[in-house]
Amino acid sequence: MTSRREFFKKSGLIAGGVAAASALGAMPLSNRGEFDKPHPNVKENQATLPPNGKSVVVVGGGLAGMQAGVELAARGFKVTVLEKAANPGGKLRSWRDKTWGPADDDPSFPGYIREHAVHGVWGYYHNLREFLGRYGWQLADTIDGTIYNYTDKTLGTAKIPMPNWPAPYDRLQLLHSMSEFGLLSAEDKKNLTTVVGKLASYDYNDPKQTAYLDGISFENYLKGMNCYSPGIAAFFTSFCELGYYEGIDKASALTLARETILFVGSPNDLKMNFYRNPTAESFLKPMADYIRAHGGEVRYFTEVDGVDVSDGRVIAVKALTIPRQVIKRCSVCGNLIFDGMEVGHECPYCGANADMLRTIAEHERAERRFEADYFVCALDGPGLNSFLGKNLEAFNHDYFRRASDIKSKSVYVCNMWFEGKGYWEKALEKMNQGPSPVLVTTGYENISVMINRSMRARTTDGKHWAWSDEYIDKDVTVIEVHLPRAEKVSTANSKDIATLCYEDIKHFIPDLPEFKGWYVNRWNTYMNCEVGEEAKRPAVQSPIDNLLFIGDIVSVPHTCQWMEKTNVTAKWATNLILEKAGQKEGRITILPSAILGLPTRALTAGKSVYLAGDEQA
Q: Mind listing the domains of the chain with CATH numbers?
């Protein structure tokens, strides 16, 4: 580990020659107060108000929709959430599967947890953390130590350790660790400083900069700076695939600019927690219970496909009427199963076990209409495409036509279990990687992010940490892998997909035995980050005054990403509805999602996001 004194001698590399060592040594320690707490406390956000006589329909019970439902219910609105699946959660959904995992002798065992995929809560999710803390929904810890374990099939391995210097020097230490990334040549390290400084200078409040970065692929952006090399490409591909499951040849430069702003803040912003397992029981059901306890409803198996618009306002939405040839609905993804579509033991859409297919109830075939004063659309990409595509004539505005063309990305999530423990840990140690349940990969045929769901590690207080208590005392290894190029294997069966993943894993865990069980979640709801996609994203406020859009597919002038974005947009919509209703109480303070200090400002001094010759773009 480089000492602070040694680092200051090299500071010209990191800060681009802007911040001298003497100035750095004189910098005071920073105090970020609430932002360094697991759950920031914002007193003015703590509101529980009586009924105000106004109603809101939330279309979509994913994370954004449920958060908006909770915030609005707490502020006196009668909330109705409409969700097409059997449970809320969207990308955070979980369920239990008795057909998966090692045998359990206890007949009362409800089944091992399956979930959409493992999702972490980064430290810079300040708004999501504030929300969770305010309602008493706690997160689980992870292992202190390495931020980032990485391997490329051709180039080798590298890691970024968690900084341990006091603030603000911790940021400089983090930047130094990035510059010392093991796969980079001396020239690459110099170029990395140039690229990071340029990206971190992005002003998200400037629509011209946003449009410019949205209009160029990151690969071409690197080439325009004369900073492209295999090492630099692999470095940024790993971050792009970690968050967006896309290569830098297709991802926009905007994607990496937004990610960079978040990753060059305080290292505390890079610490990660996880949702307590299972999310359906620890977090999502309590959200639904909260809405109901405050006079609202959460209706499942209710897919909205119609809308009534009168005098420039939405007056009602209508649930899809299910025809007789539809025989079942998947409880996990909510999709309809027509007669003759059932094949094998899985949902033909998402891959859930056939036990999750549910017979259509008679009341679901009847026409259902939901009126309200305000409507919040919280649909994922495919849901939004379908809803808007069926109602463009009623909406009749370019805002809706652009949004209806938003693309989604398909990503498969494969889980396998193996007999025995220790394979993962020994492989990381041999690769000189830090102790972590996560490994990011590039250059492999099928896989990107990998997670050891059965990892058991000793913590500094002498206790044990485990991702899931289900496996802590079982002699099994459970590995989750993400397949960002799902289209390549979309016609393959689940076992063949698991076999392909297993072959990739064997490159760095050669002693891994044959897998004993497997499943594949097939999702097509991930946010697309290709060139030009940002221009299609709707703002929270639509041209129709009482119709708003939220979730990770909308555009908002804030440095939020992923699940933090679902929370920011839910709060944003809540504030707009409060204003429309003329209610002064209950307004929500929205926190910054990135805290950029003096070291970052020094790094970006004199930089511009524009390539040479494009400054007037």
A: 53-89+281-321+367-407+538-580 (3.50.50.60), 144-271 (no CATH)
